[in-house]
């Protein structure tokens, strides 16, 4: 028969799955001989069973009863005794800490007669009745959902009177008397703690923290100790190091004559640990030192002092800020407590990312205008602009404010300090692009009413040029300028400052060096320009994994693309020198390192004005009796090229096969730029990458053309030709494709889109919220690679590709390349490198090192 209950003395800190974090750590402290009130833990398995069937698992209550009897023997008191009652706390505690999200009930075992016994025993009537009052309140709220306000409405009073009044509230709400049988109290409390796993706020918290919803909570039942027995009693919390900065030295808060959560609730001003009575303080410090040694990490603890005796009520490896995480990891290495490999496991790419964003000095911020979705962290201040052209033309810092963004807004997004939209969520265009660029973005701020050149929000209207501040870490939008602090870490990576003398920078430096040393996965950058590539290189990229050549067709060069689309092939000759110059700059910035140039990918009509706009212009001209001229010709072209599903239409390799000379021009530009670099004494290592291939024949055709162009350029270095794997068919036929490709690069954005059949531009508002709610996925597959589905295609392609060509280089260049969880997946799938935006390069480096240790 399954066993559901473990005494504290039976468990240990490694049993968190079964006993929950709190239970496992209480057991560990008990084993260490620390002063923990005796007790036992009901397993998470019992909770899962209960939540599944709606009933207490068979045999559970009998098992609880047996452990309770042991506890009574040990304490020399009995539960429910009228003269000297044993009182219990019933505490939640899942595998992962969820502070304050679930329930705990104190003082179980008090009733109308044992309260008298407790008063007599303790010689403290006030204390006894106040404890009973607390029980009725906590029990009522937790077990019977009596609204907390109903108790509060009673107001202050003598404890005895309050007990009377609270019982009335309880009866009014539940239609029954407050349970007097202590066993009934206990069993009902255990059930209520089980159910608190499903409380709305707990579900929400787990979703946010990516904690699985099916783990269940354990329940800890333990003897009560009392911090509310006068001036030599009290309760407190403490940390073995400063959880904000990581600085050495204990930190904590203490409250005299208090119980439970009074400290956290902030009702009274707390004391520092220095003010504890000396013997208690000495003992507490020595316990904290032992805990650090045992857990080899920062610990936080909850303790209570009852008449001068110290009791430990909880410990765990403590939460900390990202900065403290790095500092403490490095400290512990210095102290000889952990190895550098372990230190790498103590920090994460997410934490590094948070340290790389600038931040607002919140203390000096006004109340926010509104709050949207925190889509891309950081703090940005600037004048409002409503379109991309204005952003690009602006001389000072600007915030691009749009209903939503589309690829046309890219120049504006690049120019702006931050992006604010009123529509769309975390995977909207604005959000994805901004995150990629490391640019602050708040999206889906639905209260904003954007109308041409003004934006109204909650009765205020702002105009172009008005200054706003947006916080991409919290989603808050402020009017006016909130002071910003730049990230020191970024200044360090940029080479503006050294790590010398700064504990945080020194810690980051040390862990980054170790990560690079361990990593098997290389980190390249997605960069389209020389300055981008140079920055990526400063951030530690060892190549460009994706240069999107279409980004070289924006701005004034659009005209050339228009000419091309209208059938003027001389446009290609005009584009050639422009592309060549771009590549030369890029190769120079990445001299000696590979630069993967992707041939043009998006549907060409993306370079033309939108259909509606053109139609309106032509109609206006005609209404005025004017010749629409070039607009008319363009309109015909746009109509001709209009597609129902452009993402599945004429793009990628298909363009190369349909539009003669387009790819050849790009290949020539690459080869000539490389030859020029060689002539200038450089060491360019370009590669040519063909997008959207689904069949080897497509690649063979483009390859033949490219090879003949390459052969015709004198002085060019060898240039490898490879393909993106972003169509499921390409992954499945990777064995054939590898024969014609010297490298693969997974385009996981398109691969995800096509594998799931989700349009990445539309899913967000439509149904992702619902999908996340239903748990169909815990996180958007566009953010973190779907390891089971899309990931399986990656594994298949790697295996089949390498079988056909053992020296095949395999990388990834989608958004996922900079996502910590995905980096780990790519390491395990055996890829050679990931490529991500320059800003995320350090994050990927850290994660690549972590994945390899
Ligand atoms: P949370 O997980 O939300 O922190 P806890 O189970 O730790 O909830 O309980 C909250 C507080 O209740 C503890 O910090 C402690 O002060 C008090 N408490 C819990 N058990 C006992 C006990 N056996 N004796 C005295 N106080 C207790
Ligand atoms: Mg606690
Ligand atoms: Mg693609």
UniProtKB/TrEMBL annotation:
Similarity section: Belongs to the PEP-utilizing enzyme family.
Positions annotated to bind substrate: 548, 598, 726, 747-750
Gene Ontology MF term list: ATP binding; kinase activity; metal ion binding; pyruvate, phosphate dikinase activity
EC assignment: 2.7.9.1
All residue ranges annotated as the Pyruvate phosphate dikinase AMP/ATP-binding domain in the record: 54-269
Ligand binding (Mg(2+)): 726, 750
Swiss-Prot/TrEMBL cofactor(s): Mg(2+)
Domain PEP-utilising enzyme mobile: 397-475
Keyword line: ATP-binding, Kinase, Magnesium, Metal-binding, Nucleotide-binding, Pyruvate, Transferase
PEP-utilising enzyme C-terminal domain residues: 510-849
Active site: 429 (tele-phosphohistidine intermediate), 813 (proton donor)
InterPro entries per record: ATP_grasp_subdomain_1, PEP-util_enz_mobile_dom, PEP_util_AS, PEP_util_C, Phosphohistidine_dom_sf, PPDK_AMP/ATP-bd, Pyruvate_phosphate_dikinase, Pyrv/PenolPyrv_kinase-like_dom
Lineage: Bacteria, Bacillati, Actinomycetota, Actinomycetes, Micromonosporales
Entry-linked Gene3D superfamilies: 1.20.80.30, ATP-grasp fold, A domain (3.30.1490.20), ATP-grasp fold, B domain (3.30.470.20), Phosphoenolpyruvate-binding domains (3.20.20.60), Phosphohistidine domain (3.50.30.10), Pyruvate Phosphate Dikinase, domain 2 (1.10.189.10)
Name of the molecule in the record: Pyruvate, phosphate dikinase
